From TrEMBL:
Pfam families: rhaM. This is L-rhamnose mutarotase. Coiled coil: none annotated. It comes from the Bacteria.
Length: 110
């Protein structure tokens, strides 16, 4: 990734409070093929942070978020992962990866 072309993306989702422990457990052992697909499709420095009330904060860096989302959506492993993760979230009509709305960055310190 080139320093000046990197997009920093942050998004919020809400995990159901009664599913927090299971959600944390599932992310202790993310499938190797899912991890590889994320890397291959341009998801770098990807982190998820979870509060005790279920607020999930996601952060990643990529050259092109729209292209990275599209490439990931075309993988078979992502379809399986999203189907398994969907029941963990509140307020989503579709897959979790389709409900990620990036926040607007208002400040960054290099």
């Amino acid at each position: 990734m080139k320093g000046s072309s990197v997009q920093r993306v942050c998004f919020l989702l809400k995990v159901r409070p009664e599913r927090l422990a299971e959600y944390r457990e599932r992310h202790r052992d993310v499938w190797p093929e899912m991890r590889e697909a994320l890397s291959r499709t341009g998801w770098h420095n990807y982190s998820l942070f979870l509060t005790d009330d279920g607020l999930l904060v996601g952060y990643l860096e990529t050259d092109d978020f729209e292209a990275a989302q599209k490439a990931m959506a075309e993988t078979e492993v992502n379809a399986r992962w999203q189907a398994e993760m969907a029941p963990f979230f509140e307020g989503l009509d579709g897959r979790p990866d389709e409900g990620m709305t990036p926040l607007t960055e208002v400040f960054h310190l290099d």
